Amino acid sequence: MSVSRRADRFILVCAYLFLLLVRPTQSSAQTDPGRIIYSKFADSVLLVFVADEKGQPVTLGSAFLVEGGHIVTNAHVVKAGKPFLQFGPAKVPATIEKIDPDADLAISEFVG
Length: 112
Known about the structure:
- By secondary structure, the protein is an alpha+beta fold.
- The two termini are 26 Å apart.
- Helix content is 29%, strand content 39%.
């Protein structure tokens, strides 16, 4: 699956989550498309914190896991500084492998 298709899937998931949050649900949890999509993909969505050179947080974004343990996020988020991935109470540093400013995508991986 290409990065573009994964990005489209991620945007679709985010759109459904947004709709789920801004309008009251009128259907049961078993048939609501937003809840179904969220339950299917929530475990692969990560929180990305970006810190400046002093270690202070400067931006916050989301990312998703793809094959090979790589992480896809928006380029405008990670180019602001050093990215860290949030796993519960732990923040794990990540390295930026590739950035595509035209598509506003970045591929990162865990450090260590």
